[in-house]
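Example (one chain per record):
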Amino acid sequence: MANYYPPLGYHFRVEFNNIKGEFQFQSVAGLNIELETEQIAEGGENRFKHKLPVRTKFPNLVLKRGVLVNSDLIKWCRNAVEGLDIVPADLTISLLNEEHEPLITWNVVHAWPVKWAVGDLNAEESKIAIETIELVYNYFNIQ
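Predicted structure:
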């Protein structure tokens, strides 16, 4: 029987296809898919309703990192959120092994920002200022 070691979730890389720069993120959330269903009642059958598949649903992608000054990514976000200059981008999220090679890759298609936020600033705590970027997207492929 072979030894199986599940990959560690802290070693990952995020790349935007049409935005310059190196992007280091603290966390990525929202890489899941859900199948929406529709309930249909059948005449004469009162014990249950049939559930039929309708479409897949993808939640917003939430990226968190330390605040950066003069970031092309934040300029892209602010142009979309403040100026309604929506320029969709594809991005790649890779879970890496110990040699920094991709184990699993999620190709996120047609993403654009809907929210940009900076975490609370508090003089009583010694924490890094965190910014959150929330993206909507059409779908993702897994490689």
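Caption: DSSP finds one helix and nine strands in the chain.
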